[in-house]
Amino acid sequence: EVPFFPHYAVVGASKDQSKFGTKVLKWYQARNKDVTPVHPKEDELESLKTVRTIADLPAPTETSVHIITPPKVTLGILEQAKALGVPALWLQPGAEDETVVSYIKENGLQDRAIYGGPCILVEGDGVLQSLQ
């Protein structure tokens, strides 16, 4: 169970409305969550100011980070998240592979990470309710 945090970040949103990352970002917006998109190049997504990396988040230790990226990218984000003390990570299906899962287990991140299963767009409301 990943506890409730006041801030959220989405890594993997883009200007492409059809992509899952953008749908996840909009999911948080629709629920009036304090969400920050993380994007290396764009300055703004869905009318929200972006940050370049999770290291640029205003309060990484109080932010739940949602990851919708290819596994090679995910690995780098997990390394950053561990160094920054990010308390919660949700990897959308497809963001992980064996290397990513091994990293999570070897670095003791299991209690901070949701992976290998639930999609926020399907199960997010139930998860949020269980955390309130």
Task: Give the SSE layout.
Blueprint: E1 7-11, H1 20-30, E2 34-38, E3 44-45, E4 48-49, E5 63-67, H2 71-84, E6 88-91, H3 98-106, E7 113-114, H4 120-131
Parallel strand pairs: 1-2, 1-5, 5-6, 6-7
Antiparallel strand pairs: 3-4
Physical arrangement of strands within the biggest beta sheet: 2-1-5-6-7
**Using DSSP, what is the number of strands?**
7
Q: What's the Cα radius of gyration?
A: 13 Å
Largest sheet: 5 strands, parallel
Helix content: 25-40%
Can you characterise this structure?
The protein is an alpha/beta fold. 35% of the residues lie in helices and 19% in strands. The protein contains 4 helices and 7 strands. It has helices spanning 20-30, 71-84, 98-106, 120-131, and strands at residues 7-11, 34-38, 44-45, 48-49, 63-67, 88-91, 113-114. It has a 5-stranded parallel sheet, with helices on both faces. A two-stranded antiparallel sheet has the order 3-4. The longest helix is centred in the middle third of the chain and has 14 residues, at 71-84. The protein is globular and about 40 Å long. It starts with 6 loop residues before the first strand and ends with a helix. 33% of the residues are buried.
